[in-house]
């Protein structure tokens, strides 16, 4: 029988919960070092287990950021992380970062569900005004799921990031609470953002 899970935020497909450094750090370390996952992330250096344990510890410092594990509702499997970084309290902005480390779960709507939960927390609990995100121009999946959640492209830094032997544009996206609320209503009513 599945143990009763820790629930911080509950969506249609996933649960977001605090990470546990004793049981989750090894998975995080495997994911972030995986070339196919790392290809999409700003972090390019090898990460030790200690790095991941420290990352989980810092996730507990709610004044700076909020780091949560993404768990499948059906099975309780931890498949990734979803976080709010760089919370800027005076301007009520923060940036988001997501990683589904189990690659077989990419493109199945879990990221969109998790991002909507995080935005609900950011806007309706923390009372943020805008939320931002950046992605490499080649990361169409990341750009697409952000746009599903109401983000708009706010700008493009040209040739800003070097990856796979060449420079790529960096896409800046952002969403305000006002833009996101109608999508949230639709998501709650129909279970879909569209
Ligand atoms: C980015 C990420 C969190 C998105 O979560 P996800 O669960 O895979 O995304 P979803 O399935 O909710 O949505 C993806 C959307 O992009 C579409 N998509 C999938 N692959 C795509 C591709 N190669 N090109 C364009 N669109 C693509 C999906 O079809 C879906 O759109 P749709 O609903 O219109 O069909 C996840 O893929 C991930 O962790 N990737 C690796 C790490 C990463 O890129 N992190 C973000 C760094 S900015």
Write the SSE topology:
Blueprint (H helix, E strand, L loop, with lengths): L8 E2 L3 E5 L6 H9 L1 H4 L10 H10 L7 E7 L5 E11 L4 E8 L9 H15 L5 E7 L3 H9 L3 E12 L2 E11 H14 L4
Parallel strand pairs: 5-6
Antiparallel strand pairs: 1-2, 2-3, 3-4, 4-5, 6-8, 7-8
The protein binds coenzyme A.
Brief overview:
The protein is of the alpha+beta class and 194 residues long.
Explain this structure.
The chain contains 6 helices and 8 strands; from the N terminus they run E-E-H-H-H-E-E-E-H-E-H-E-E-H. With 194 residues, it is α+β, with helices and mostly antiparallel strands. Strands 1-2-3-4-5-6-8-7 form an 8-stranded mixed sheet, sandwiched between helices. The protein has one domain: Gcn5-related N-acetyltransferase (GNAT) (Aminopeptidase, 3-Layer(aba) Sandwich). Helix 1 (25-33) packs across helix 3 (49-58) and helix 4 (110-124) crosses helix 6 (177-190). The radius of gyration is 16 Å and the shape is globular. Bound molecules: coenzyme A (COA). Coenzyme A binds at residues 37, 40-41, 80, 98-100, 106-112, 135, 139-142, 144-145.
């Amino acid at each position: 029988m599945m143990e009763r899970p820790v629930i911080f935020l509950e969506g249609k497909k996933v649960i977001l919960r605090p990470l546990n450094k004793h049981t989750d750090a090894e998975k995080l370390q495997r994911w972030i070092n995986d070339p196919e996952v790392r290809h999409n992330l700003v972090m390019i250096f090898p990460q030790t287990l200690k790095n991941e344990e420290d990352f989980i510890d810092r996730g507990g410092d709610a004044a700076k950021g909020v780091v949560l594990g993404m768990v499948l509702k059906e099975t309780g499997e931890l498949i990734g992380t979803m976080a709010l970084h760089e919370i800027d309290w005076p301007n009520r902005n923060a940036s988001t970062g997501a990683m589904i480390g189990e690659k077989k779960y990419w493109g199945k709507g879990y990221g969109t569900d998790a991002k909507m939960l995080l935005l609900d927390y950011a806007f309706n609990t923390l009372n943020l005004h805008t939320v931002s995100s950046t992605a490499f121009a080649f990361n169409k999946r990341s750009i697409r799921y952000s746009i599903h959640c109401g983000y708009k492209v706010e700008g493009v830094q040209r040739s800003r990031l070097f990856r796979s032997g060449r420079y790529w544009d960096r896409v800046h996206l952002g969403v305000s609470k006002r833009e996101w609320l109608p999508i949230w209503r639709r998501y709650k009513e129909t279970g879909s953002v569209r």
